[in-house]
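To make the argument concrete, we let one protein speak, a sequence paired with a row of structure tokens, as a model reads it:
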Amino acid sequence: MSKPVTDHQSSWLLPAIKYGLFACLSMPLIIGSKFIFPYIFPKQAFFQIMVEIVFTLYLFLALKNPNYRPRSSWLWRALLAYFVMMVLSSIFGVNTYHSFWSNYERMAGVVSILHYIGFLFLAANIFKTKEEWYSFFDVAVIVSFLEALYGLGQMMKIFTSSGGTRFDGTIGNASFLAGYLLINAFFALWLLLEKRTIAWKSFYGVVILVNLFVMYQTQTRGAFVAFLAGLFLLFLFFIFARQKDLAQLPFNRPEQLKKYLIGVFTFLFLIGGLILLNRDSAFVTSRPTLNRITHISISEATAQTRLLAWQMSWQGFKERPIFGWGPENYYVVFNQYYDPDLYPVESWFDRSHNAYFDILVNTGLAGLTTYLMMVFLAFWYLWSAWKKEKIKYHTAVIFTVILLAYAIQNIFVFDTQVTLLVFYSILAFIVFLSFKPSPESSSYQPIKPNAFFKILVFLVLIFTFYFVNMKPGLASLGGIKALQILQAGRATESAEQFKTAFDIGTFGLPEVAMRVQDAAIQLGQNSKIPADVKEGFVKLAIDGMNLALAKEPLNVRFMMMLSSVYLSAASANNSYLADADVLLQKALELSPTRQELYFYLGQIRMYQGRPEEALSLFKRAVELNDKVSLSHWNYGIIAIGVGQKDLGEQEIKKAKELGHSFGSSDIKQVINAYTRTNDLPSIVALYQEWILQAPGDASAYAGLAGAYAEAGDKQKAKEFALQAAAVDPSYKDQAEQFVKELGL
């Protein structure tokens, strides 16, 4: 590595930039509970703001100090080529706007990726000595250790986990936490082998143990498989290493290392074999992580959904093979090639849950080729640096293992903020190694920026800060504030706050609109809310979801959400039913195999008094996948309601055989269906079953009393009305009035 560079001209700029880059590494710890998607947007916004500030400072540093001006290599050019392919894919894709901006949930569009490339560029050109790179990765490891401690706090119930029994730290997802901790454990191993002081070695040892322990507790199979593969590769690299390479390791007798490694490898192999052979034992099955790892099967639901998503991805790639559908547009492929076998386990994916299929679908062969070229050159320059003695053998080995472990994990998941951060940190180090030595600074002269340049740079920074970070942040804050106001019972004020968030007009608008849609549905189901307030929220939700569809016109999910608002408020006094009909017909053209669309349309046909068409639509949902209990259930309910009792009962029976529940709420739904045809014997039998299931539910007795009354059996009607009052005294007055009306 290079010798330290003495810098007298850049004064405070250089340390400010370094501290800014260190601050970027703290991004995983950022949470913003007042934002929509508190684990995602605040992290990315913080990271982007830091990169923008640091890059602005770098411009002045590069002008003043020639030693820090940009350098290049084939690896750097390959990385830029990959980014160019992303931009071209966005332009030629199906939604350029969404490709560039993404959304609050992902924050992985072209604009966000540009910031990661900027981060890489800055680190590769600023850090020039091994000590500086040690400091860079020290900060990364320390942050990961704090993250792991937070995970331990969740285990001890000090902090809550949004992942339930699976710990997710401040990252908000167990799988991403596991991958992040794993990579940083490898960073700690590298630093342990590089540094000589006992204090640092002890710290790195603790980090490795704690990170791996918390990673294990996340129960993440992909990360654990990546860890085992990485460990296996580490053993192989060192077992077959040359003695002079082993001599660089900080051990007293490195020549004995191979023997120890072979012994440890054999021991671990035997332990792993014993665990696999006894995977059904109480020891294994009582430990969630071991149980999940040893019982991996392609037949389980999670594996099946992944395989189906990959098949759909391949179909999408074949349709647009060159530049793909555009970054962040996977959901269009998911809808167009939706496999009915996914329902009801998964009805919405915006990722294929395989990073390589994501790249292939989103950027086509152009993107995947440049990505693979970039990765190939990273390995090439890493091992070239070892051959040129820029780095030691164990450095090349560990960073190779890190990249391979990262690659293996990405077979099962997709990239998010924290994994992108560590990936671009690794690439930054390798890009630095790929650079040729800097030319003598005397051959370049410092440049003093004039006032116009300073003002221009400052204005660009302010413009970028406001439009890229602040506006989306204000809209996100506004959406959450509106929900809090609504929860406090101030619906009118909440609606105004939502309108303000809409008016900000950023890429986050759809996700604000989704909150309004959910609020409108919930308010509509609350009998205590005034009608004018409900109608106001319905109109607001409709306006919001239409604005969302203007930004993402191919988003079938938005169409279904808007249709649900229309259906919830449809009446003879508005056109909502017709609006939902038109919208769902369009959705069906975009996603012809989604069962949910047939459910919605069937419901509309029932409202329109077209029962035969409704029945046909529900039948089509069953035909798409006849192993789904809900499809049979819905088909059966509709069949009963339109008078096809035998068909309906047959479908209800199939639904129950496939695992559909038959509790009180289900029985009530069937009763409502029989009510349409006034099938009193069936209604009476169902109420009796309801009472057997829930003898303490007074509404079942009251309902049965009403059924007997309608059937003309006044004595039994009286008997069950009084039983309803006995079960629940609040029914007493109602029961007495009911008996009085019976004339008994």
The first helix runs from residue 13 to 24.
